[in-house]
Amino acid sequence: MKKLSMDELKRLKVEEFKQKKKFPMVYVLDNIRSMHNTGSIFRTADAFRLEKIILCGITACPPNREIEKTALGATKAVSWEYFKKTTDAVKSLKDNDYIIVSIEQVEGSVNLDSFTPGKNNKYAVIFGNEVKGIDDNVLEYCDYNIEIPQFGTKHSFNVSVTAGIVAWDFYSKIMPDIIS
Q1: What is the pTM of this model?
Q2: SS3 66
């Protein structure tokens, strides 16, 4: 057994990536404090060819050496924009027909494995601060609140791990029918 080379993996070049059809999902980062988490989320967005990332509040923006330590160049491929206030970003997404989804443990939240995304919908998925979660004012705009079932002693996943789990879940449910 041998590892595949970069040529054998047939990865897209940045310009090819930008031209390809994207999965209609936007990740909204609500005051993420760790630049390593932000960089890791950029890599996840690249891997699943998400539409873009919206960075809000204290979330650092590229170019940034600390983000690049984990992004490994994904910031050059994945589209992003910045909003000072997360509520402004979410209002803009709602105005553009995105379904707003929080990944948060709240009353009435739905387990991720029970959520079935629609194939013809656009989703904006909000991830909150590593300590405080998603701001309460932002939660008011959400159409769905989803949580990932957990069975250990901790009450949360790392935000970058959560972003990967959510992307894979949506991909496994609907993405193969949307992009190739």
Answers
A1: 0.95
A2: helix
